[in-house]
Amino acid sequence: MAAGAVFAGGGMGALADPPAIIGGSTARVPVERPDLAIGFVPISCAAPLIMAMAKGFFRQEGLNVQLHKTAGWALIRDRLLDGSLDGSHLLSPMPLSLSLGLGSHAIQPVRALTMQNINGQALTMALKHWKNRDPRQWKGMTFAIPFEFSMHNLLLRAYLAQYGLDPDRDVSLRVTAPPDMVANLRAGNIDGFLGPEPFNQRAVYEQAGFLHVLSADLWDGHPCCAFGVTAAFMAQYPGTYRAMQRAMIRAAYFMQDPANRLEAARIMAQPAYLNQPEIVIRQSLTGHYADGLGMVRDNPRRAGFSPYPYPSMAVWILSQFSRWGYLKDAVPCQDMAQQVFLIDEVRRQVADMGLPLPAAARNDWPDYAIMGRAFDPLHPPSYSR
Q: Is the omega angle on the peptide bond into residue 198 within 30 degrees of 0, that is, cis?
């Protein structure tokens, strides 16, 4: 693949605390469709979406939202595309894969209105591997991932490749619903999983596994989940999607404030949302946690929240689609990134609401340090594998 055909990266920087009252717009399009069905998968990455509901951010934008807890990503995808859902929690690679027609679906343009979270994932290993920490010794192992078009899959593949393993030949990757990962780890069906919270911490809580590495230590500031709608919905309901976007921006700012994490953990633990032990959610959100190997650790970067969908993130995702054979043809990756990841709209909404703009958000194309290597989204590398 020619350099520049497909690749991405960048650090977010801390978001400033949101003001207590967010100012209104002087030129907002009216909400055309206030009654909305929005889907989410019950994982910690959905925290901004859950907070937008629980804290009244949707309601304050004139939206009457019904959240639909959904078992997995294939169902989320199908319900968004068939119109059963008006918007949804999505894995950040999904708007790109759907817009390119990857997998079994025809091209379906989907847009990332906001990012929801950054970091917040981990590679968790079964306790029996506590002395086997060298990935070069992992040939023949089986790992779970939540979805093919996920950051989990792409990060795990890149991590294994860094240690000389071919993720398609040397290990087995098994798509597994996040709630089933811990049980499969305990039963010995998998050796590890790169998955979302709170299930990494749940594995520690149940003494089934340990945290081998946090995703924040692989790529600090990496995207994970986004909030998206179809391009067709945007065209039909411009006022409505912008109201949804504003609510999600407010929620990401709320979640980025560490002072709000304990309240968020209490809300998210409820049966209507994650239905998981509050202590497990709290440890993964605050970064004060047990690692499963007898240590209590502090890493405030373990989980982060930001509404900014940098195009450079999308370029890295596209580069990995190409690297691992999901994307067969070259695409103009920078153009595709800007078409799908709506950073300019987010920036305008932030300014319109009177929110402080982090310094990093002024740069659409930040460079990233990914697994110890610099990634330049404007001059992406080519990969043999």
A: yes
Task: Give the Cα separation of 296 and 298 in Å (integer).
Answer: 7
HEC letters along 81-146: HCCCCCEEEEECHHHHHHHHCCCCCCCCCEEEEEECEEECEEEEEEHHHCCCCCHHHCCCCEEEEC
Per the confidence metrics, is the pTM higher than 0.90?
A: yes
Do residues 349 and 249 touch, judged by C-beta distance below 8 A? yes
Residue 68: partners with Cβ closer than 8 Å, 6 or more residues away: 37, 38, 39, 40, 79, 85
Q: Coil, helix or strand for 1?
A: coil
State the pLDDT at residue 27.
Answer: 57
One-character DSSP codes across 200-224: HHHHHHTTSEEEEEEHHHHSTT-B-
A 10 A CB-CB count for 332 gives 13
How are beta strands 368-370 and 373-375 bridged, if at all?
antiparallel
pLDDT(14) > 70: no
Report pLDDT digits (tens) over 103-148.
877 999 999 999 999 999 999 999 999 999 999 999 999 999 999 9
148 secondary structure, DSSP code: S
Enumerate residues 6+ apart whose C-beta is below 8 A from 227: 48, 49, 87, 88, 89, 90, 112, 113, 114, 115, 116, 244, 245, 248
Output the average pLDDT for the chain: 92
For residues 324 and 161, the answer to whether their CB atoms sit within 8 Å is no
Is pLDDT at 207 greater than 90 in this prediction? Answer: yes
